[in-house]
């Protein structure tokens, strides 16, 4: 245990010693690390930008989407700073953040030579390499340079490529509450013994996974007493966001938390599905920020939301949209400088029915890496111009 | 002259082919010798039970549990378990997700598995043609709603990217053209019953809707065509299809990163003679028994549970009663729900199965096996087996 861990653990013990299973008190947190934290939310499937950030004063938008356009009267007006764009009604929980200047909207984000495959495009975003030579993830390369195995954490069942490094990958924790070993003592002892016996080949890789699991059991077990105050959507994504808040409050010490929400591949029946999912994102991030405010960490946490691509502009015959190119990123938090970073999409200048990208996602990554005091050039392999989000 | 099969080779073969076995079966394979043992394992699939449900069409969760249980119990009891691991391969390749395919019922998914069982060992082209008309696939990848006015590209894209030639061998324009060719390939209930009124035991059938079909000429992979059938014929004749899918087969049956010469050799067998001959080629190949490939794969959660239950002499699980209900949840926590892969690319597999949370679930499942040492036969399930405590060894996770 290093010194920082020790101090955090002592404070945690102090804070929890009172027996109140609530978020940590401010006194304990005042002495906790002031390090910045990045929370990444990956919307897998390709979120449709045009029905999230709506060009509702553009007639062409309504002509190209006769069945699935968001009705003008339902759009949330973003005011003068939002140019002529507005939000999907399910994003109402984000409106106060927008009005307070804590929400950055970055439209038409992408990369050169866009790829419309979910898997290839996701891999490009995860490796931060459109040339597809890199196999490690951008956060994985950063993690390779850290000492703490919990420098970053994935909330879910299988660590994404973004958090896979050469040397290590982020621990994958689906749920704090479910994360305990429930085996008869003999089995647990045998497991600990086997984990110490080196092997070769795949068996050795399994043994390494056993060691990671043992380490994680110790660390995560301490967080069970930490509870959320805010209400999160009652689904896996909502619970993951709630668990991230608990991990931060409990002093797990990760600089990066990463989670995924799938279901955005709306080739058919898009409107109800996307509305439901956007609602989850807005409600969960609002709840999360409320929890961060309650422990005085709101200004330390940057939340970054992305999807592997946007969707095509003209709707298809099944009330849906097909895979596109440029998509929408959102960055928010108490320490984030809000605003619209980009312009209204040009619906007359399309690439095979898709929005052309305007901002390279690696510029936004560079901003996020600066936030956690990482070296963007070292991670991204070249200089990118950070977007001025803080 | 028949080639010999040693006992250690037999446990490896049985584990890989069927993900299920006990000592006595491995010994029987040894007595048969290599060729006969492989023939024995690759016998034509025994039919699976018929599925009927008392659930309504809206009670999909119940139907999903019922077909999952029916399949696992079949895998545990069938005389041809290798066929069920083959079904798992095709399910992870020609994917459909239960939770994403709202109209489709348990019976439709059960029928899709029957297609895998019936055609999965044969020529890939025959299986592909059947799946292109399979109601679950048409609903899952939205081709069922694709009309000439605005073709839906979902099926056309995944057909090229995931099911046949793989990325790098086609353009976005090819996807658009293929999507046009498949317009009108849709589904209906027999006798034009309406879904609201039909029983959940009524399955969808393929239907070609002439009025939705784009009859114009298309250019697909440089060839002038009109129909979806022609798209399939071009892909079935394409050598890349066999290299791409054959490599996936080797990753499923041999090792995570198969050597290129084996990929090429396998692709030729797969193309000329179909999946059963491909597996016969592999299982009788010297390389298959190379120590480097023994224990080179990680059991998927289904393979882990089926193997474990079988080793413990369990022949029936019940998801509606304790403790079966907990095991259904454990499958979700381990990351492999039958009929419900995480996305259209199927399961990643490999070490991803052993990330912290899913690995922990695998271990916690073992609590149910404590105190059942008698009758637990781990000889085929894992190398270095002993008593039940051996289940916490790394080898228990390997296939």
Q: How would you sum up this structure, described in words?
A:
The complex is a heterodimer of chains A (390) and B (399). By secondary structure, chain A is an alpha/beta fold. Chain A folds into 2 domains: 31-176 and 223-359 and 370-380, Alkaline Phosphatase, subunit A (3-Layer(aba) Sandwich); 178-218, no CATH class. Helices cover 35% and strands 14% of the residues of chain A. Chain A contains 12 helices and 14 strands. Chain A has helices at 3-17, 26-30, 59-64, 95-99, 118-127, 138-143, 185-196, 201-221, 236-249, 270-294, 361-371, 376-380; strands at 37-44, 53-54, 76-77, 86-87, 103-110, 152-155, 172-173, 256-262, 301-307, 327-332, 339-340, 350-351, 354-355, 359-360. In chain A, the strands form 3 sheets. In chain A, strands 1, 5, 6, 7, 8, 9, 10, 11 and 14 form a 9-stranded mixed sheet that branches. In chain A, strand 12 (350-351) and strand 13 (354-355) form a beta hairpin. Chain A is globular and about 70 Å long. The two termini of chain A are 33 Å apart. The model of chain A is unreliable at 1-33 (pLDDT under 50). With 399 residues, chain B is mainly alpha-helical. Chain B has 3 domains: 1-41, no CATH class; 60-239, no CATH class; 301-335 and 355-397, no CATH class. In chain B, 48% of the residues lie in helices and 4% in strands. Chain B is built from 16 helices and 4 strands. Chain B has a two-stranded antiparallel ribbon with strand order 1-2. In chain B, a hairpin with a 2-residue loop joins strand 3 (218-220) and strand 4. The mean pLDDT of chain B is 96. The interface between A and B is large, with 56 and 54 residues. Chain B: This is DUF1800 domain-containing protein. Chain B: InterPro entries: DUF1800 (IPR014917).
